[in-house]
Design goal:
This protein is mainly alpha-helical and about 90 residues long. The chain has one domain. About 40% of the residues lie in helices and about 5% in strands. The chain has three helices and two strands; from the N terminus they run αββαα. The chain has a two-stranded antiparallel sheet.
Amino acid sequence: MDEKIEEIKMEDIISFTKQRGFVYQGSEIYGGLAGAYDFGPLGVELLNNIKSYWWKEVVQKREDYYGLDSAMFKHPQVWDASGHTSSFSDPMA
C-alpha cells in the first residue's frame, strides 16, 4: 500500500469549519479576538453534544462527584484567597 497521505494544515481546518458553519473567530469582521469564538448552527450542536457526553461520563456516572455551575465573575477577595492575584501563572497568556 503506497498511499500518499496528504498533510492537513491548520488553515485548511479553519477554512472548513467556517465554510460549514461550525465556528468563527470572535469579532472576526473587526480583525478578530484571540481565544474568543462564535459558534454557527452546526458548531452549537457539536459543542452541546460534547458537553452532554462529558457531563454524563465525568459527573453523572460517578457517585463521588457533584455538578456545579458558578459565575466567573467573583468578588476580588475570592481571587486573592485562591492565590490567583499573587502567584497564579498562565503560560498560554
